[in-house]
Amino acid sequence: MHKLCDAPGEVEENLSAELVKLAGARMIYVLGIGNKDRGDDGAGIVVAEVLRKTFPSYSFSEHDGLEGVVLDISEKDEDAFIVFVDAADLGEEPGSIKLVKADDISATEITTHRVTVALLAALLERSGKRSAVICIQPGQIEFQAEMTDSVRASVNSVAEALRCLMASRAP
Amino acid sequence: MKTLEVVPLTRVEGDGGITVTLDGKKVQSVTLDVHEGPRLIEQLVRGMKPEDDLNVVPRICAICTLSHKYAAIRGLEKALRIDPPEKAQLMRDLMMLGESVESNSLHTFMLALPDFLGYPSAIAMLGDYGDDVKRALKLKKFGNHVMEVTSGRIVHGENPGLGGFGRYPSGTQLKEIAASAKELLPDAMRAVELFSTVKYPEYPEVETVFMSVNAPDGKYGLAGDSILISNGEEVDAEDYKKLTSERVVTHSFAKRSAFNDKSFAVGANARMINMGKRLDGQAADLFKENYSDRWLRNPLLNNLAQAIEMVWALEHLPETAEKVAALDDPARADATRETGSGTGAVEAPRGILYHHYEIKDGLIEVADIITPTAQNLDDIEVHMKACAEKMLAEGKSDEELLPALEMTARAYDPCISCATHLVKLKRI
Fold first, then answer.
1. What tens digit of pLDDT does each residue of A56-101 get?
2. A126 vs B62: CB contact, 8 Å cut-off?
């Protein structure tokens, strides 16, 4: 796991560069994870929902049944790079973003509230697909909490970085 | 004195841990601690309209979301004397079958199987059992699809309501469900094959009592108005408090249940023990082939029960979907009173789920929700203690003991986020 950036403004630039490096020319799929009923825990879902408006066939959230989506992608005959987006306790300031590469996922216990991302990533790897996780440090995850401003800003940055990347290779 | 801790308990839903206190070769205590904070759902819905309650209570759990919805519907419909039309009842059966496949496939293949095959996780199993991991995902995807078609969304669907549904699926959707269920039956059979051939350690074996709903018409099913107990008793679901006798413990946020001051178990094994003779089709054959007296003692066999139940669900999905398709879409049934009380009892994948309501002048005065994991917690501790005592007597090491304890707890398929239950506050 490596830390991309803490300061607003630099995050988007570094994240984009790192994503381009990892994704290469592959098609990009975004899978958002989390729970919108718990404030910042919904960060991944919000990113996926934003991107879905432009890329309905390439952006999914946990509400779509993540395991089924991963199964479908794994059976597609195309080079794909899957980006999971989830709130994760990084021990950093709220809104901090980290990009976790596929190789590091199994060592980093990240829950999808169902099947672990590590397993989904391993399954994708087995079918020749690559993946990574964008983690956003939550500030508050209490039931019915609002999303904090810092996490909302990071959600916008992540969504914009992914939008640019997806637009560059959309069919 | 030595303390062994399994914190956090992995491959279960929610945050929990096991603490085993050992004094030499003697087990002083075993506690399953639930760290999830109380969410006060029962207090939150007081003063709400019944239909608004249905939007709130399923949020208790994203896994058993439809079980919570259905238990609440049953309790509220009894309280308001609503008689749902036949098609609505069949749709409810369909959604529960979908949830059952979705949950049991995840638990059997992905969460429990690694324990029995000696892998640390499903990820480690991928090399040797990759096809089985894919089977699990296929079954789970199908279960999710049935839940989406019937309830409107995969998680927290709002289509089921009091007196019926907002809309009913098309004939094409129902035909697809029937066809997919038939196609996936071999995948569920594979789960039974795996769980009927693995070795079940004897360490956690202790005789216990099992409770399940009594499904109507002498059939195997996932809802009922009375409760069957493996000692031969049958109790009206309205008397659920006599069966659960809830209490608070100091080491955990979750309330506990006991029957006649002793632990009891709910879940797929309880359903099979109490209603297994009612199974039909291949599920009946598999039950007969695999059932033995050990089911009454060994909680690990809950995994095999879940696998057989998956076969039963896939065998019944086509027939249920066809029955739904054959009926015209009915209007929702209306409430015939505004004051009353009622208890809904359904079988969530993990066991009996109770939702009890008292309504006055159209508003909820009292809500009481007792989840299956909360009912199982005492029993988990009893079986873990037996497991620890027998293993220590045989001189097993701590390294051998820890995974065996976790495996025992996991066999109950505990959903710890559900088990966090309101603690009643007394003001003085």
1. 999 999 888 888 899 999 999 999 999 999 998 888 899 999 998 8
2. no
**C-beta atoms of A116 and B123 within 8 A:** yes
CA distance B122 to chain A (A): 7
Chain A residues whose CB is inside 8 A of the B121 CB are: 116, 118-119
Give the gap in angstroms from C-alpha A67 to the nearest C-alpha of chain B.
6
Residues 44-103 of A with CB under 8 A from B: 62-65, 67-68, 70-71
Burial class (CB within 10 angstroms; exposed 0-12, middle 13-18, buried 19+) of B258: middle
Using one digit for the tens of pLDDT, what is the confidence trace for B248-294?
777 766 778 899 999 999 999 999 999 999 999 999 999 999 999 99
* ipTM of the shown complex: 0.76
Q: Alpha carbon B280 to chain centroid distance?
A: 21
Complete edge-to-edge strand list for the sheet that includes strand A80-87: A2-5, A97-101, A130-136, A80-87, A27-32, A59-61
Domains of chain A as residue ranges with CATH: 2-167 (3.40.50.1450)
* Domains within chain B, CATH numbers bracketed: 2-419 (1.10.645.10)
Q: How would you write the pLDDT of chain A (171 residues) with one tens digit per residue?
A: 223 333 333 444 588 899 999 999 999 999 999 888 889 999 999 999 999 999 999 999 988 888 889 999 999 999 999 999 999 888 889 999 999 887 776 544 444 346 778 888 889 999 999 999 999 999 998 877 899 999 999 999 999 999 999 998 866
Chain A residue with minimum CA distance to B148: A64
DSSP A91: S
- How far is Cα B329 from Cα B428, in angstroms, rounded to an integer? 53
Residues in chain A: 171
Identity of the amino acid at A75: E
Kindly compute the dihedral angle of the four CA atoms of residues B336, B338, B340, B341, in this order, to the nearest 10 degrees.
90
**What is the least distance, in Å, from the CA of A12 to any CA of chain B?**
31
Query: B-chain residues within 8 Å CB-CB of A37?
Result: 59
Rounded to a whole number of angstroms, the distance from the CA of B336 to the nearest CA of chain A is 34
Among B13, B123, B158, B187, the residue to mutate for chain A (most A Cβ within 10 A) = B123
